[in-house]
Design brief:
Number of domains: 2
Number of strands: 17
Distance between the termini: 57 Å
Largest sheet: 7 strands, mixed
Strand order of the largest sheet: 7-16-15-8-9-14-12
Oligomer: single chain
Strand content: 15-25%
Order of helices and strands: EHEHHEEHEHHEHEHEHEEEEEHEHEEHE
Helix content: 25-40%
Number of helices: 12
Length: about 325
């Protein structure tokens, strides 16, 4: 069968992933050239506050594509396919097939030849679920459909190794400086840089400071200690709607801690995890499980407070760090 001359495809193309690549490859297999019409920032703004910008989405496609693919800005829901006379194909997924059929109906009413519809199959992730931008933004998978925290890691206890000592001493986020006896100074600074995502506070001092400021974090992890010394004044857990507990000895990351963090992230009301042991290593798991845009706060002894907003770089680093732990 002769190739089509030019195929059109439209979409948001956020977090350019394996499913997007399969869609465009299906177009290239059917046609000589593919035009990718990318939803602009105005149209996509209602989807998620953590959607990439139009230029970021365009750049991701162009970094992967060859000269047979061109990118264009889509500013309405139909795009140019209903009236173009220089194209003969349109690419879709099962979900967008109905839109392509409507476009062909519009073409027929205008006296134009219908476009040949190329339906690309879905690409599945490690769990057998469709790879999608929303699942990537939700923090579950990477752009290739790999779980950030794989099942074999979920069932084993990870033990800290001394070779990681220097690496973990380095702040993974932005340091907000403030005196130890005025913890609200660093906290106020950090809060100014927070995104609209969930607020996760790790450590009794961090959690206590927020509560004293009249702010209840979405998720709190406490162990009743600071600098491994028992606190005289315990956190007022009454501020939280849901209380969870997890056994997690010092220098370890247990399956129980991982499960508790996952449950807390899924809750829609403020949740506190009371850790029997230590919660110092919890940010590693939080970043691996949390949605993109989650604000993770924890103390930096003698200096202030660290804020790290969960993104792909944080997930990659945490996955690498976890892989260096000893598994028993």
């Amino acid at each position: 069968m002769a190739k089509l001359s030019r195929c059109l495809v439209g979409g948001t193309f956020d977090r350019f992933h394996a499913g997007h690549k399969a869609l465009l490859l299906a177009g290239l297999a059917a046609g000589e050239f593919v035009e990718v019409w990318i939803v602009n920032d105005r149209m996509s703004s209602h989807k998620s506050p953590f959607l990439q910008s139009f230029e970021q989405r365009r750049s991701s496609i162009l970094d992967w594509a060859d000269e047979r693919i061109t990118t264009h800005e889509l500013s309405n829901h139909i795009g140019p396919a209903a009236h173009r006379t220089d194209c003969d194909g349109i690419i879709c997924t099962p979900e967008t097939l109905i839109t392509c059929e409507k476009i062909n109906e519009m073409r027929l009413k205008s006296g134009l030849t219908p476009l040949q519809i190329i339906e690309a199959p879905h690409i599945l992730d490690q769990t057998g679920t469709i790879i999608s931008s929303s699942r990537i933004r939700a923090g579950a998978i990477d752009s290739n459909g790999n779980l950030w925290l794989e099942k074999h890691n979920r069932i084993n206890t990870h033990h800290f190794v001394s070779s990681l000592d220097e690496e973990l001493k380095q702040p993974m986020g932005d340091l907000h400086i403030g005196p130890e006896d005025m913890t609200d100074v660093a906290m106020s600074s950090a809060l100014e840089d927070c995104t609209s995502g969930a607020l996760v506070a790790v450590g009794d001092v961090c959690v206590g400071t927020l509560i004293d400021m009249g702010i209840t974090p979405d998720i709190a992890l406490i162990d009743g200690k600071t600098k491994r010394v028992e606190l005289k004044h315990k956190i007022e857990v009454e501020s939280f709607d849901i209380l969870l507990s997890a056994d997690n000895p010092a220098g370890q990351i247990t399956p129980q801690l991982m499960d508790s963090i996952e449950v807390a992230l899924a809750n829609e009301t403020p949740t506190c995890i009371e850790v029997n042991g230590e919660e110092d290593l919890a940010p590693i798991i939080i970043h691996l499980l949390a949605p993109i845009g989650t604000n993770v706060l924890y103390g930096q002894p003698g200096e202030g407070l660290i804020l790290r907003v969960t993104d792909e770089k944080a997930k990659i680093r945490c996955k690498d760090i976890l892989s260096k732990f000893e598994v028993r």
